[in-house]
Write a structure and sequence with these properties.
By secondary structure, the chain is an alpha/beta fold. It has nine helices and 16 strands. Helix 3 (94-110) links the parallel strand 3 and strand 4 (115-123).
């Protein structure tokens, strides 16, 4: 495993943000070319790569996905392979996910599947929620379209190598909602001559926190988190004429998200109208829920038969754009424990545990075996 540990450390030293993963993709491509895959498609959906290993007999296509991108987080670790790019780091462990698929690629190069084919997808821009949709929209993806798709994510706080699985919703849908309220400024000595959005902004912020309780099923994960707001400017002679509110909407399935959006938009519209304001709403960082299919979940369960496996009672609250893939074919996203005492994901001192590379790559290969028979 030294080869893959070294690769992981090299990727960790040179992280790149979503949509800018050119050198990361190049490093992976250099590694994969040495393995003589049947196909290597570059620039897929932006910076993505797809590496294909085909069997001699026809059969299903199985896609395994990992992520190329890093985070805009300054690393605090003091290890020798710490990030050399200021303010950017692999605090989500995508460097480890790439190394895992590299280990899978080497095994498939040495022994092709007997039937069907395996597509190893190195996906760009997962952190922004844009990469999976861009890959699927790429015309070249049509020839790669899988019958089954699988992905994993390392999860600190669970024993190293423990498999975390859930049939149905596995990770939540989420989206960033930007609200703009527009009235008219006025002299601060005569605020009544303008139209201030201050009161409407305060009502909306208070109501957003209470909104999920009115639309969610019992025990269902549905909530709205106000992450920021701005009213006017620091100008003591001027009453404000504009306000902005930024909120993250989150739910465990896409139907609940649709209800949450409809109610949040109605809440904004009614409060704006009540105070004579104009309003605008737009969305960023849109992630669908990742829904694990029963047949794909069963394959993961069978492949992990000799491992510790935890069936999760609830979906994870974080989001993953792998939901675009599970919406197009049967698939499963599963977690794999990164260690009980590890820092959490996105913490500035998080570093993927190298010991997971052989554990996770072996599991992926057994999943391929289950899917291809």
């Amino acid at each position: 495993m030294d080869t893959f540990t070294d690769l992981r450390h090299e990727l960790h030293r040179h992280p790149e943000l979503s949509g800018a993963e050119s050198q990361t993709a190049n490093r992976i491509a250099v590694f994969l070319r040495r393995l003589d895959p049947d196909q290597l498609i570059e620039g897929l959906g932006g910076r993505g790569l797809a590496c294909v290993f085909a069997g001699t007999s026809p059969g299903p296509t199985v896609l395994l996905r990992c992520e190329l991108d890093a985070l805009p987080i300054a690393e605090l670790g003091e290890h020798a392979h710490r990030s050399t790019t200021a303010g950017v780091g692999h605090q989500c462990g995508h460097d480890g996910h790439m190394a895992i698929l590299a280990a899978v690629a080497q095994q498939l190069s040495a022994k092709r599947p007997a039937r069907g084919r395996v597509v190893l997808l190195y996906q760009p821009a997962e952190e922004t929620g844009e990469g999976a949709a861009a890959v699927i929209a790429d015309p070249r993806f049509t020839e790669l379209r899988p019958d089954y798709c699988f992905a994993l994510h390392n999860v600190p706080g669970y024993p190293l190598g423990e498999v975390l699985l859930r049939e149905g919703p596995f990770s939540c849908a989420s989206r960033g909602m930007s609200i703009t309220l527009t009235g008219n400024t006025a002299h601060a000595a005569q605020p009544e001559t303008g139209t201030s959005p201050a009161q409407a902004m305060c009502r909306i912020i208070a109501s957003l926190g209470e909104l999920p309780a009115h639309i969610a099923e019992p025990e269902q994960i549905t909530f709205a988190t106000v992450v920021g707001a701005q009213l006017g400017a620091k100008a003591f002679g001027t009453a404000p004429g504009q306000a902005q509110i930024w909120v993250t909407l989150r739910s465990e399935d896409n139907d609940a998200m649709a209800r949450l959006i409809a109610h949040a938009e109605a809440l904004v519209r009614l409060n704006a109208q009540a105070d004579g304001l104009q309003h605008a709403i737009d969305y960023q960082d849109i992630f669908p829920a990742t829904i694990n299919a029963p047949e794909a979940s069963a394959m993961v369960r069978a492949a992990a038969a000799s491992m510790s496996l935890r069936e999760m009672a609830q979906p994870f609250r974080w989001s993953e754009d792998f939901g675009h893939f599970t919406a197009s074919c049967p698939g499963a996203l599963f977690g794999i424990g990164a260690g009980v005492a590890m820092p959490d994901l996105h913490n500035p001192d998080y570093d993927f545990p190298d010991a997971l590379i052989p554990i996770a790559s072996g599991l992926f290969l057994r999943i391929v075996g289950e899917a291809l028979g």
